[in-house]
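In the laboratory, one determines a bound structure by crystallizing the protein with its ligand and collecting diffraction data. In a computational setting the workflow is compressed into a single prediction: the sequence and the ligand go in, and a structural description comes out. We illustrate the idea with spermidine.
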Amino acid sequence: MSQEKKAIELAEDLASHRIDRRSFVRGALALGLGLPTISAVLQACSGEEAPKEPPKPETTEPAKPAEVPMEKELRIYNWSDYIAEDTVANFKKETGIEVIYDTYEANEELVAKLQAGASGYDLVCPSGYAVQVLLALNLLEKLNPAWLPNVGNISTVFRKTAFDPTDEFTVPWQWGTTGIAFRKDKVKAPPDSWAVFLDKQYKGKMTMMDDMRDVIGAWLRYRGKSLNSTNADELAQAKKDALEAKALLQSFISAPVKGQLVAGDVWVAQLWNGDTMQAKVESDQIDYVIPKEGTTIWCDSMCIPKGAPHPRAAHAFLDYILRPEVGASISKFTGYGSPNAKSTASMEKPVPYPTEEQLKLLEYQTDLGAASQQWDQIWTEIKAG
Ligand code: SPD
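The predicted complex, in structure-token form:
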């Protein structure tokens, strides 16, 4: 079927309520439709009149810092264990801004919170594919570059990304990989494959993450497929493998598994590199590998949700973390790579960005489009199975 026909079918599915708005947006993005077209279809299907002409680019000069008063409060929603212990306190000491800081464990949790509306947050930190979803749902504000004098410190590797090609919505926070953390003193040999999660000798001593994209993605890579696959047969095989592994797992758990690794209750865990490094600080028996079948590389970015109550303070925080020494202290604590070129240059042992050769094993997650419903269904069945 042609792309055009698929797009028409998708719009018809939305109009007749066979799919919801979110699935439409994902599907439309996967077909390569532009945001103006997607927004016009959404408007038409919600009964609103579509604009007669495409919106014109804003021509007004960005507001200058002095023209908008600084708010006294800031609400941040970020991944757990993803900031240095003193970052917020130091920011408050310098600016007097009160910070309310909440955490989440998965992109899906964040997207659901923002979709529900009126979250009250001023800054959130989605991974690349989740930025695409939030943009398509029109849930992000544009940044004001006049309030970000340190934005030039960001490495060019993390500018004009696939998820924010015009750099209007995101300030990259940290990047990393999803691999295997293990206890050197407990396993017979360092694991080198996702197959370790099918190894019966470690039954009850292993965990995989409570994260749909990372778990199904790992089993897709195990079979040599893309971790962004939307192919029904490939996904069925990934589900089969995940269920076989589940019978041997202690649980699906993400960042909080660190304590169990340190205590020696878990010997092998699917985990992100930085969180593994945080556990390694507590126990030198912990190590990390990238499986030979390949895995995810990701970059999470700070964004301002639509209607955020404290946009000026949000920019002040973003510019603060873009300072070389602040960015470096965050990466030093989290164990993740800094997208800030000046921070990396100032660090003794920065996480080096992968070489071309290493990148061949790594894959960025992308929005799944209409197939996200299929993924959601498979994940529900894996969790319930
Ligand atoms: N403890 C913070 C971990 C952040 C991981 N974010 C990226 C997830 C990609 N699936």
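Confidence is low (pLDDT under 50) at residues 47-59. Keep in mind that any predicted model is a hypothesis to be tested, not a measurement.
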